[in-house]
């Protein structure tokens, strides 16, 4: 059995509809430090660290990888939900609409993205930490709880959600800290 610690990135310096790949703001950097400290308490020794290729997740991983003196693996399969448009205003409107729906409402390419993320989690054979995104974390929680809703909970920035990969089945161990949050 492998436990996967899914960490939502710290607060970004800009939102989904105003920047393609923002880094963290000062609060986000503080959240990243707190998450690293919490993970160091939870895990007695370093485990593999994965991060979405986006700046906010890589920056959130920085305190932990420095503390553990490890190199993170960039993992496309845990990246942000792919948008059908590059126009930032259209992208924000699209995301608001998608978040109200279910997985069965979505186009095949998004279902493939979801399945790839689930396959990544099920392939983990040892404990691992993954720095990812709001909807991506919801993908795994939804898979573990058999939920079809796109959003099953609101992971706060810097929160840690734990899932177990046991015999090819994802199980929810503990939801991360939740908040009424904006997706950024």
Question: Could you walk me through the main structural features you see in this protein, from its secondary elements to its overall organization?
Answer:
The protein is of the alpha/beta class. Helices cover 39% and strands 16% of the residues. The chain has a 6-stranded mixed sheet with strand order 3-2-4-1-5-6. α1 crosses α2 (55-68) and α4 crosses α5. The mean pLDDT is 93.
Q: Quote the average pLDDT.
A: 93
Secondary-structure-based class equals alpha/beta
Radius of gyration: 15 Å
Note the gap between the termini.
32 Å
Low-confidence stretches: none
List how many beta strands DSSP finds. 6
* Helical amount: 25-40%
List keywords for this structure.
6-stranded mixed beta sheet
How are the SSEs ordered, and which strands pair?
Layout: E1 2-8, H1 26-42, E2 49-51, H2 55-68, E3 73-74, H3 88-99, H4 108-123, E4 128-132, H5 134-145, E5 160-166, E6 169-174
Parallel strand pairs: 1-4, 2-3, 2-4
Antiparallel strand pairs: 1-5, 5-6
Helix pairs in contact: 1-2, 4-5
What is this entry, summarized?
With 184 residues, the chain is α/β, with parallel strands linked by helices. The protein has helices at 26-42, 55-68, 88-99, 108-123, 134-145; strands at residues 2-8, 49-51, 73-74, 128-132, 160-166, 169-174. The protein has five helices and six strands; from the N terminus they run βαβαβααβαββ.
């Amino acid at each position: 059995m492998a436990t996967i610690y899914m960490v939502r990135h710290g607060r970004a310096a800009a939102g989904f509809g105003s920047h393609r790949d923002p880094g963290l703001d000062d609060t986000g950097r503080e959240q990243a430090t707190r998450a690293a400290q919490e993970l160091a308490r939870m895990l007695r020794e370093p485990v593999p660290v994965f991060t979405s290729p986006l700046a906010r997740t890589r920056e959130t991983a920085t305190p932990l990888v420095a503390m553990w003196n490890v190199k993170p693996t960039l993992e496309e399969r845990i990246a942000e939900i792919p948008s059908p448009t590059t126009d930032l205003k259209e992208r924000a409107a699209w995301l608001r609409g998608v978040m109200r729906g279910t997985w069965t409402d979505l186009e095949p390419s998004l279902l493939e993205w979801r399945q790839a993320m689930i396959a990544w989690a099920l392939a983990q054979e040892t404990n691992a930490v993954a720095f990812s995104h709001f909807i991506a974390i919801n993908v795994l929680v939804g898979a573990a709880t058999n939920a079809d809703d796109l959003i099953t909970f609101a992971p706060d920035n810097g929160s840690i959600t734990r899932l177990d990969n046991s015999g090819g089945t994802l199980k929810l161990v503990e939801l991360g800290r939740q908040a009424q949050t904006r997706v950024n």
